[in-house]
Amino acid sequence: IDFIIAAFWTGDMIVSLRTGYFEDSSLEVRAWPIAKKYAQSWMLVDAIIVFPEWVVLFLQGQEQIRSLTRMSRIIRAVRCLRLFRLFKLDKLITPAQDQVTSNIMLSAMTLFKLIMALVTTVHLITCGWYAIGEDDEEGWTTYFAPETTIFEKTRLFWYFASARWTLAQINGRTDLGERHNILELAYTCFVAVVFAVIFMAVFI
């Protein structure tokens, strides 16, 4: 699966280098202008996505080494950046909205965009919270739910545990856990500011 994912995103970069675009009213299909425009837009994000995929494949057989295991966890967290490509959908949705004359349909499309943005933000913050806990020997994942056996703590368990923390921040819960390390405290403050900015932008 990891190889298929890495190959897919690598192929997507190659296709992006061969995909023309409209400049004013003319279609640009020359290789150099296409590459230049791609470099000014999504190339860096795509490279950040693709590079960790191949590094993780390379490290799979060496994860018994502590330092490489820690690096692998960090890289797997960085892979979540691929969700930023969802913002490309705005280029597809906006022209479609211009063709819609129904106010109900326009409202539904706007609501869909807001929901997708919220879901993406929550997912990224959830993955970041889990990565921070796993990156430290005394992170929150080492003492969370002590009554749960190690066999029950699957990836799905940790995802929902992290998502529960993220949703609690949305609800205004102040996380004052005394056992949190400095990075976890800083991340909590960062998330609080992010959600405050989002809700002010949407509702004010």
Can you characterise this structure?
- The protein is mostly helical and 204 residues long.
- The chain contains eight helices and two strands; from the N terminus they run H-E-E-H-H-H-H-H-H-H.
- Strands 1-2 form a two-stranded antiparallel ribbon.
- A hairpin with a 2-residue loop joins strand 1 and strand 2.
- Helix 1 packs antiparallel against helix 3 and helix 3 runs antiparallel to helix 4.
- The termini are far apart.
Question: How is this fold's topology laid out?
Answer:
Layout: H1 2-16, E1 21-23, E2 26-28, H2 31-39, H3 43-59, H4 66-78, H5 89-98, H6 103-135, H7 155-170, H8 182-203
Antiparallel strand pairs: 1-2
Q: What are the key terms here?
A:
mainly alpha; globular; two-stranded antiparallel sheet; 8 helices; 66% helix; 2 strands; 204 residues
Question: Briefly, what is this?
Answer:
The chain is mostly helical and 204 residues long. 66% of the residues lie in helices and 3% in strands.
N-to-C SSE string, H for helix and E for strand: HEEHHHHHHH
Structure classification: mainly alpha
Query: Any idea what the shape is?
Result: globular
Strand line-up in the sheet with most strands: 1-2
Low-confidence stretches: none
* Major sheet details: 2 strands, antiparallel
